[in-house]
Structure formats: C-alpha cells, structure tokens
Design brief:
Strand content: 15-25%
Radius of gyration: 17 Å
Strand order of the largest sheet: 1-2-3-4-5-6-7-10
Protein name: TIM barrel protein
Largest sheet: 8 strands, parallel, barrel
Number of strands: 10
Order of helices and strands: EHEHHEHEHEHEHHEEEHEH
Helix content: 25-40%
Distance between the termini: 33 Å
Length: 251
C-alpha cells in the first residue's frame, strides 16, 4: 500500500489554506504538513480550508524543543492548544535526557492538545537530538518521529541504519533536494536531481511502512519535485486531477 503523499507549507509560504489545499490536490497529493510561527500564510485562515477540501493535515510544526528550559510547559500547553486534535511536530534538545522531569511535563503539555502521545512527533533535525535520543523518547513516552532526510545527512547518513532505529515509529518522511555547506548545519535547497532519486529509492525501501511522505522544499520547484517524489516513492507516479494547475512553490 502506497503512503499518503503531500507537501509542506514551506513549499508555498504565500498560499492561504484553501490555496495550499488546492495546490496539493492539483499535484495528485492528499495531505499537508504545516509550520506554525514562521509567517506562512495558511495561519491567517486556519485549518478549516484544508478540511473543507478534504485535505488531511498531517501535523502542525511548532518551535517547541523538548528538554529546553526556555520552553515552559505552561506556555507549551497554550501554544499547542491552538491546534487541538492535530498531531504536533516538535524538536528535542541536543543533550535531551528522556528521564528529565521537564521533558515529561512538556510531553504532557503537548498531549493535552494533540491527544494520544503518539501524536507528538519529534523531528530528526540537524543540531538537535541524536537518533538514539529520539529512540529513547519513544521508548519512554510513546512519541513518534518525523524523519527529515536533510537532517539524516547530519545525524546518520545511512538511511538503512536510521531506519533500524526509527522506522517502526516513524509517522512521516520529509523529502527535499539540498546541498551541504562544509562546516555548516545549514544547507541550500535545490530541485530534486538524479542523485536524489537514488536516496529516495533507498529511503522508500528502508521506511517501507511509513504512512505519509511530504515534500518540504524551498527550491521553488514544487510541481517538478512532487512528480519525482511520486514516481520514485510509489514506483508508478500519480496523475494530477483535471482542472488543477500547479502554482510556483516558493514564497
């Protein structure tokens, strides 16, 4: 069974909820991942536009960092409450300890809004927790993972080794074309190319049971990149519904 394919609001920051929903449907997708607190236009119109057009909201990404004392659980709860009932994607601090009382309180604050603890998703992002630490958070609390292939280039370049730790509880894989910058945790986004097809094929095999795969790129090539993602990940591609014209993906 193929996973549900979609795009992130990072691909089209300038689109409101209905416009972003229309874009993903025109591409042949059915789901979106959203980033909050970064000025993406969907926040002005909220979640109703996606629901009205039958597009699934996979998660809302927050800037919350588990284990960071600046993220007070009470404030975390207030931020999370704005998106009640939707899975919430967060980060975990570089030196996070799963048995830290602060982490327990932060997870509790998030589950008060998201619901089941499995709807709290920890991102594999460069500069944050290791894969082992994310695994420990899952083992202790039941949180799940969002596997960002860009982050894996820093945390664990082997997708097979990453999958051995995370695949069983990974909810979403994020895909983008990127170029590493020597000595930096920052990358440059670029359209998906031939080398990315190899990485995507390996990721597809390693994370074969993942429910959702989303394009998360700021390269301005959303239609072309989504077509590559669909072709490689489903091994057949998708046909976009008639009447939809993909728009530029950068804003």
């Amino acid at each position: 069974m193929n996973p549900r394919l979609g795009i992130s609001s990072a691909c089209a920051k300038h689109l409101d909820s209905e416009e972003l929903a229309s874009l993903v449907l025109s591409l042949g997708g059915r789901t979106v991942d959203l980033r909050a607190g970064r000025g993406h236009r969907w926040e002005q119109s909220g979640l109703d536009g996606f629901r009205a057009l039958g597009v699934e909201v996979g998660h809302v990404g927050l800037s919350v960092v588990l284990g960071n004392p600046r993220h007070d659980p009470e404030k975390v709860a207030k931020e999370a409450a704005r998106y009640g009932g939707v899975p919430l994607r967060v980060f975990a601090a570089e030196h996070v300890a799963a048995d830290d009382q602060l982490v327990a309180e932060q997870v509790e604050a998030l589950t008060g809004a998201a619901g089941p603890v499995g709807d709290v998703l920890v991102d594999t992002h460069q500069g944050y927790a290791s894969l082992r630490q994310i695994e420990e958070l899952h083992d202790r609390y039941g949180v799940r993972a969002v596997v960002d292939l860009e982050g894996l280039a820093f945390l664990e370049p082997s997708v097979e080794k990453a999958a051995a730790r995370l695949a069983a509880f990974t909810q979403t894989v994020h895909v983008k074309g990127f170029a590493l910058r020597p000595g930096s945790l920052k990358t440059r986004h670029r359209p998906l190319g031939p080398a990315d097809r190899v990485v995507l094929s390996r990721a597809r095999e390693a994370f074969a049971g993942v429910p959702r795969v989303c394009l998360q790129s700021e390269a301005g090539s959303v239609a072309q990149d989504f077509a590559v993602l669909a072709e490689v990940w489903t091994q057949s591609g998708l046909t976009a519904p008639s009447g939809g014209t993909p728009s530029k993906g950068r804003g």
